Each structure stands twice: as C-alpha cells, then as structure tokens.
From TrEMBL:
InterPro entries: CinA-like_C, CinA_C. Signal peptide: none annotated. This is CinA family protein. Residues 12-165 form the CinA C-terminal domain.
C-alpha cells in the first residue's frame, strides 16, 4: 500500500484485521508497551478503521500500566512487566476501560539494552482477552531476532495483529 508510513506487510495484515472484525461487528482495543502504539497506528492506516478500533493504550512504564490499566504493583514485582501475567492483566484492564470486544496486550524487551539471561533482548509477551470470556489467560511468549530494536518491534506488531483476527 503506497503512501503508508508503515511496512506493507503490517498494513496488509491490519487491513485483514479491520475487515474481519468489521464483518463481525467487533471492536478492538490495544494495550501496548514495547510496540509504543504501532498496533493501533497500523489499524488507523486503514480507511474505515473507526468502525473497529475503540482505542489504544500505550503504557510504556510500569507506573502507566498500574495507573491506566489497573495492573497491580505486586504482579509486576512478582512476575515482571515482561510476563504473561502482566500482559493478561493489561488486556483485562484494556477491556474494562473500553467498549471493545477483544483486547490485545504486548510487553517486551526491544533492546538493544535491558535484556537478562531469563528475558533476553527480543523477548516479547502477548495476551488476548475477549469480553465475557474468563478463565485461562490466552497468552504467549516469543523470542524474536533481536538484531535491532526496530525489527523486534516490527515482528511484535505483526504477531499482535494476528491475535486480533477472529
């Protein structure tokens, strides 16, 4: 798609997300940390995305995750911000503070610094939550090629968009 500030592969996937969710009459919300709003930005590249995107939360700091999405400080202290527990709480908080039907949350270590032995650069965690569907957290941890910060964020954005497909 010419004229976009984002790579074609991201815009093409965002188009599918908007089309499929619009077809279902489903609203989405994003809760982003390491992607810094790229998932919401990708969706807003698509004409008609206002029928699908309710809102996007960029909660980069731990304090923002706590204040904006209601993630408990105890959860972050126990499991860390880059954990399935944290992104699940972020997704649940995004649903609670929006009119959306489905939420996706992302947190990770984009690099080049900040990695640890247990969570090296390129570690990104995702969660998807559906309104009215409680139970087991739906999340995953991925290790992307940490060759560059931009590449980690690009791969994380694609993965998060995939999670917004029905």
């Amino acid at each position: 798609m010419t004229g976009s500030v984002l790579p074609d592969e991201i815009v093409e996937l965002a188009q599918k997300v908007v089309d499929e969710n619009a077809r279902l009459g489903r609203k989405v919300v994003t809760a982003e940390s390491c992607t810094g709003g790229l998932v919401a930005a990708a969706l807003t590249e698509i004409p008609g995305s206002s029928a699908v995107l309710d809102r996007g939360f960029v909660t980069y700091s731990n304090q923002a995750k706590q204040e904006t999405l209601g993630v408990s400080s105890e959860l972050i202290e126990t499991f860390g911000a880059v954990s399935i527990a944290c992104v699940w709480a972020m997704a649940q908080g995004a649903l609670a503070k929006s009119g959306a039907d489905v939420a996706v949350a992302i947190s990770g270590v984009a690099g080049p610094d900040g990695g640890t032995e247990l969570k090296p650069v390129g570690t990104v965690v995702f969660a998807r939550a559906l309104r009215g569907k409680d139970g087991e957290p739906e999340g995953e941890m991925k290790l992307f090629d940490g060759q560059s910060r931009g590449e980690v964020r690009r791969q994380a954005t694609l993965c998060a968009l995939e999670l917004l497909l029905p």
